[in-house]
Design brief:
Strand content: under 5%
Number of strands: 2
Helix content: over 70%
Shape: globular
Structural class: mainly alpha
Length: 661
């Protein structure tokens, strides 16, 4: 058996896995790396009660976002109070509790004591508002505020994790040490600058409806459609399963909004396929982790952070989605090229065509995309509000689900979607509440201006140094912190640093910069949760998988620097620029960026037609980087380096093949 045959042999342990084994493995991995999967076990009547409560919460949330004209103090406190109740009913005090229908007395106490302050505030909002800062002179009101914050903090530990609590804890200690106690309590609990700030407001107004939309969409069978579509498009090409992973994860990830969840869900199918094809386990796990993480930057949904970005940047959500298109294309193109070159280097083949779904079989199912198409049209035309657009899309999803014979939306599935939407909101809402506390501490202490002064002084006013420091902050704070919370923290702390006149990064570019680096924390060592989840399914070394994922996702580390200095990549153009020039700039930046990503991917992989020497690798990487920087001089240098290397390697490979014959 030659080397090629050895590499493409089917691994016995992978081939022998049954569907039950895969589902069990998926469940185990999710519980290990995803806190949202460590939930209480309810059965029988208690399970039905919890299901009803979660479903009613989803219906209530849709109703409030569409029709309620109540003041924010009532609406948001009711929302947070319900989140606390559902959160303690869902998440136990620690992992691994398998006792059925078990809710200990201390959790009941925490649940009630924690929710009461928010409900009390909601029903007495007018009188509390009239009291203003004098509210903290009442000891009972102070105690209620402390209990509410502590209960939310404990729920955060259970369902989000420790990392964000470390950030919150340090900031709160700093705040209480530097600001009067009563003012801190008022700002963090009773004002709109703390726990009830922008993040939780956006969550209650927009995000919850989109989470419910995603839950309904999943039950139409769209994930299976995406995977089959990816198989049909790329499964037969060299190293097909890895390309399937890239395409399907991009499509599924934009709906799920969870890099770990998407890695495990689609990875349970694609990773064994990649291993059977001949990819090394650590590479297979890395491909899935990198592609799944990128799902959060994929328009139109982009996880939940896109709505927060729109709020922070004060631009329509449709513009956020539009500006994200080119960077997302470059990200996934880079991964796709990398897996193609790896397949060529290893001599891997694709899946036999007879085993793949036929496009003619999938075309009748294309109506499954209708809810997404409707959502994009409604949001981009600004005909309705975002929440109303999402609600209409939910209605379209229900219709599609009723039509789909293979995965028909039954009354049971309908309620399961509402239940899943309610449960899915808990973690995001808690993370948003914690982000509000962070923002509140920064506002109360004036820490943002102090950080700006420090970074500006350290960077000496050089934007590249400020960007490097910001990148490190985003990656460190993003380790184990959900994307939404990480972005909120970065938007409050680091984005203002970059937009400072002495640094001079445009507002949109600064926010996209921190958004991107908050996301790639999921695949960046040492705490790369998505990569670790992929390694668990692939049975590969976690750290090797994380480093491979980082290499594959190199575009996510390069592109943010490019659009920081060249806003054209985000379709930000100078005022007064003619339509013809705008079209020209868009076309040129798309072409040069794609060629640049190709050069970088080939240089990092070390294979293009043949194994290349270090000089060619350096030339391709340098040429690729210069092509990513808009400008005629850099474009010419990049084309010469990448194009010259491409032609030289192709001719050299032809000569070697001719000699070998």
């Amino acid at each position: 058996m030659d080397q090629k045959d050895k590499e493409t042999v089917i691994e016995p342990e992978v081939a022998a896995q049954s569907q039950e084994d895969i589902e069990a493995a998926v469940d185990e991995v999710m519980k290990k790396y995803d806190r949202e999967s460590n939930v209480r076990i309810w059965e029988g009547t208690p399970q039905k009660i919890i299901s009803i409560l979660c479903g009613l919460f989803s219906l209530y949330s849709i109703y409030v976002t569409l029709f309620s004209n109540k003041m924010p103090e009532y609406r948001l406190n009711m929302f947070v109070g319900m989140i606390l109740l559902l959160g303690y009913l869902t998440y136990p005090i620690k992992k691994g509790i398998t006792r059925v229908n078990y809710l200990p007395w201390y959790d009941i106490l925490l649940m009630v004591v924690g929710a009461v302050p928010f409900f009390y505030f909601a029903f007495n909002a007018k009188s509390i508002i009239e009291m203003a800062t004098n509210v903290t002179e009442n000891q009972v009101m102070v105690i209620l505020a402390i209990l509410g914050i502590l209960a939310m903090t404990e729920l955060c530990r259970r369902c989000v994790g420790i990392p964000i609590l470390c950030v919150v804890g340090v900031l709160m200690v700093y705040t209480f040490a530097n600001v009067r106690f009563g003012k801190v309590i008022y700002d963090l609990f009773y004002s709109a600058t703390g726990l009830r700030g922008t993040p939780i407001d956006v969550c209650a107004k927009y995000i919850v409806v989109f989470i419910i939309f995603g839950a309904f969409l999943e039950r139409t069978g769209i994930s299976d459609f995406f995977i089959n579509l990816a198989n049909s498009l790329a499964g037969a090409s060299a190293g097909g399963p890895a390309k399937v992973a890239v395409i399907s994860s991009a499509l599924c990830g934009m709906v799920s909004g969870s890099s770990v969840g998407n890695t495990v869900t689609t990875g349970s199918i694609t990773i064994p396929m990649m291993k059977r094809t001949g990819y090394k386990p650590e590479f297979a796990g890395a491909v899935e982790a990198a592609a799944s993480t990128g799902g959060q930057i994929m328009p139109p949904i982009m996880g939940a952070a896109a709505f927060l970005m729109a709020e922070y940047m004060k631009i329509p959500y449709s513009q956020v989605a539009l500006k994200a298109i080119l960077p997302a294309v470059l990200y996934f193109t880079g991964i796709y090229i990398a897996v193609h070159l790896e397949a060529k280097k290893l001599g891997l083949k694709g899946i036999p065509k007879e085993e793949l779904p036929k496009m003619r079989q999938l075309l009748p199912k294309v109506y499954l995309l209708l809810p997404l198409i409707i959502l994009v049209i409604l949001v981009s035309t600004n005909k309705y509000t975002m929440q109303k657009s999402a609600t209409i899309a939910i209605g379209a999803t229900i219709v599609v689900g009723l039509v789909n014979k293979d995965s028909r939306l039954t009354p049971k599935k309908f309620w399961e979607a509402l239940e899943a939407g309610g449960k899915g909101t808990i973690t995001v809402a808690v993370a948003c509440a914690m982000a509000g506390l962070v923002a509140g501490c920064i506002t109360t202490t004036g820490l943002a201006s102090k950080l700006i002064t420090i970074i500006v002084n350290v960077s000496g006013g050089y934007a590249i140094i400020a960007l490097l420091l910001t990148m490190l902050c985003c990656i460190v704070l993003g380790m184990g912190v959900p994307t939404t919370a990480n972005y909120c923290i970065m938007a409050s702390t680091c984005a203002p640093i970059l937009t400072n006149p002495k640094i001079g990064i445009p507002v949109v570019c600064a926010h996209f910069f921190v958004f991107y680096f908050g996301i790639v924390a999921d695949i960046t060592p040492p705490v790369a949760l998505a990569a670790y989840a992929g390694s668990a399914i692939a049975k590969a070394p976690p750290m090797k998988t994380a480093f491979n994922a980082t290499r594959l996702a190199i575009a996510a580390f390069v592109v943010p620097y490019v659009f920081a200095f060249a806003p054209q990549m985000l379709f930000e153009f100078k005022a007064g620029l003619g339509t013809g020039m705008i079209v020209y700039q868009v076309i040129s930046i798309v072409i040069t960026s794609l060629i640049g990503i190709f050069g970088i991917a080939a240089g990092l992989n070390g294979f293009l037609f043949k194994k290349m020497n270090p000089l060619f690798r350096i030339a391709l990487i340098v040429g690729g980087l210069t092509l990513l920087i808009p400008g005629p001089v850099t474009d010419i240098i990049g084309i010469v380096l990448v194009g010259g290397s491409y032609i030289a390697l192709k001719n050299s490979a032809k000569k070697e093949a001719a000699i070998a014959q």
